[in-house]
Specification:
It is a single chain. By secondary structure, the chain is mainly α. It folds into three domains: about 5-100, Helix Hairpins; about 150-215, Helix Hairpins (Orthogonal Bundle); about 220-270, no CATH class. It has helices at about 5-20, 30-35, 35-55, 60-80, 90-100, 105, 115-130, 150-165, 170-190, 195-215, 220-240, 250-270. α1 packs across α4 and α8 (about 150-165) packs across α10. The longest helix is centred in the last third of the chain and has 25 residues, at about 220-240.
């Protein structure tokens, strides 16, 4: 591991590199063509890659992915600086002040709080900040949940908000019953594709709710299932290759039998 440098020096160098990339005439043509909208998808992608490294427990990869995510912050800040809106320093000052304001139990004289109380304190201070800026307070229990969030995550946040005001079941079995009800409604509409698709949306929303009641993150559990599917399908491909076949050469029944073999092998290892 290389000797650590002062963070201020490291950040300053990164900002200089980004400025050079965005300098007309001498910078990178691709970087110069970008704007907030074209870079936003990359920002989301890098955030997901950070989450993936965490899920895999790969701290070395996490270090690299955090660097890529930091680059996105510097990129957006540089474009804003070019427009005279704000720069990277303003971003740092903003988040530093926000963290201090929203943690009076750490940086001021308020007594210690539980994690639940801190969450409520954070929300109250956010509302006070908006009022001080003259922004209209968000109305409704569901107001302020970002539309751009992944659908599963947004569903979870909407359900949490509704649950705070009492619109919620108190038993996961009731949610499971709702899932069965939604599945029946999908079946009833199978001959009408658009209607069936809408019912599938309701079914997914109910499944997210069950995950919430079980204390599970729906994004995380679906990622785990995706990984399990990939592993089992790779086992199918390997077994077929041993028979001189590819998946497109096999029957569904043959692949399903190999799938069950892969499941049994997993259980034997556990």
């Amino acid at each position: 591991m290389s000797p650590p440098l002062k963070p201020s020096r490291d950040i300053a160098r990164l900002i200089e590199i980004m400025a050079a990339l965005r300098t007309p005439g001498t910078g990178c043509p691709w970087d110069l063509e970008q704007n907030f909208s074209t870079i936003a998808p990359y920002t989301l992608e890098e955030a997901y890659e950070v989450a993936d490294a965490i899920a895999r427990g790969d701290l070395n990869d996490l270090k690299d992915e955090l660097g890529d995510l930091l680059l996105q912050v510097v990129f957006h800040a540089r474009m804003a600086e070019e427009e005279g809106a704000f720069d990277f320093g303003d971003v740092v000052v903003g988040i530093t002040g926000k963290l201090i304001r929203r943690h009076p139990h750490v940086f001021a004289d308020e007594a210690g709080h539980t994690a639940e109380a801190v969450q409520g304190l954070w929300e109250r201070i956010k509302a006070e900040e908006k009022a001080e800026r003259g922004e209209a307070a968000a109305t409704g229990a569901l107001a302020g949940v970002p539309v751009a969030l992944p659908a599963l995550t947004r569903a979870l946040k909407l359900q949490n908000r509704a649950g705070r005001v009492g619109f919620d079941w108190n038993d996961p079995r009731a949610v499971l019953a709702k899932i069965r009800e939604e599945a029946d409604e999908v079946e009833a509409e199978l001959d009408r594709r658009e209607a069936a698709a809408a019912e599938v949306g309701d079914l997914l929303f109910a499944v997210v709710n069950l995950a919430r009641h079980l204390g599970a993150d729906p994004e995380a559990v679906l990622r785990a299932t995706n990984a399990k599917f990939e592993h089992r399908f790779a086992a199918i491909e390997k077994a077929l290759a041993a028979r001189g076949k590819q998946p497109q050469d096999a029957t569904l029944e043959e692949m399903d039998a190999l799938w069950e073999d892969a499941k049994r092998a997993e259980k034997a290892r556990d």
